[in-house]
Write a structure and sequence with these properties.
It is built from five helices and 23 strands. By secondary structure, it is mostly beta strands. It folds into two domains: 148 residues, Copper Amine Oxidase, Chain A, domain 1 (2-Layer Sandwich), CATH 3.30.457.10; 128 residues, Immunoglobulin-like (Sandwich), CATH 2.60.40.2360.
Length: 299
């Protein structure tokens, strides 16, 4: 029953894993990973991938090599056509690296984005394959999570229209840690400064942080107690309640660049500055960290 309950997504994993054995050519796509790539939850279990999912032209591509080995499907590789053929539970699926179609049984299914080899991993368009085989796929933009449920599994988690309740303040204090970092502590005037805010759920339960708007974080730079620059200044955010969801032991990172000017565009003078990165959630539980940096006169 365990094998039958395994997501059909694993079936495609077997094919794409075999296809990735072919050498990658310069013409094959090398799509950049997004700063916060979407997460995959299959039948209620979060699936970690060695190469982050990619979103290309609005289509999510996922690598599934590492879970193919757990399926036990019958795999054959046809080098001449660079095709992987999978026979599993009476079904046959054919995947070809670089092709814009997937073949399931006697059906040819066209995809918006072809199967691609990226960083040595074969990436398959998730939604078109999932829905073709009857799986339920739901995208939660607030949590940046894709929920996949096979037909023999219980109902999927609450949809974005019916979000779960936010985490109480006491649990947030116990479970969430925040850290601010910069590559160095001293910069010459005019040099860009990279600011990274990391938020980690070190607890054993999912944390849901309530946001009053679409803004999830902010960075503030102060000198002698006065704000000289704020990342959110002049930016527009969705005026709707949202949630930032952190699964157990998950870390989210937000990175911005400060160009050393104030919010009027004037370059700040040399000196010491206090940088604060904070999560802009609704509860009065401070989730922030502070770091001192120094700007020196230009050489």
């Amino acid at each position: 029953m365990v094998m039958r309950a395994a997501s059909w997504v694993l079936i495609l994993a077997a094919a794409t894993w075999i296809a990735s054995a072919a050498a990658e050519t310069p013409s094959q796509a090398r799509a950049p990973a997004s700063q916060n790539p979407p997460r995959l939850v299959v039948n209620g279990r979060m699936v970690q991938t060695d190469i982050a999912p990619r979103i290309i032209q609005g289509t999510t591509l996922v690598p599934i090599r590492f879970i193919a080995q757990a399926l036990g499907a019958n795999l054959t590789w046809q080098p001449a056509g660079r095709e992987a053929v999978i026979d599993y539970e009476g079904q046959r699926v054919v995947v070809q690296a670089g092709a814009e179609t997937l073949v399931a049984g006697n059906r040819s299914i066209r995809t918006r984005v072809p199967v691609q080899v990226i960083q040595g991993r074969t990436m398959v368009p998730l939604r078109v394959v999932a829905e073709t085989f009857g799986a339920d796929v739901r995208w939660d933009p607030q949590a940046r999570t894709i929920y996949i449920r096979t037909v023999d599994q219980p109902a999927a988690p609450p949809s974005p229209e019916e979000p779960a309740q936010p985490t109480p303040a006491a649990q947030i204090q116990q479970s969430v840690e925040v850290g601010l970092s910069t590559p160095q502590a001293e910069y010459p005037a005019g040099a860009p400064i990279e600011l990274t805010l990391r938020i980690r759920n070190r607890g054993s339960e999912t944390v849901r942080l309530l946001m009053r708007t679409g803004q999830l974080f902010d960075f503030i730079v102060q000198r002698n107690g006065e704000v000289v620059w704020r990342w959110s200044e002049g930016r527009a955010f969705t005026q709707a309640v949202t949630q930032l969801v952190l699964l157990p032991d998950e870390t989210r990172a937000f990175t911005v660049r400060w160009d050393g000017t104030d919010n009027t565009g004037a370059r700040v003078p040399p000196g010491s500055y206090t940088v604060t990165g904070r999560v802009t959630h609704a509860l009065e539980v401070p989730l922030q960290d502070t770091r001192e940096i120094r700007i020196t006169a230009a050489p």
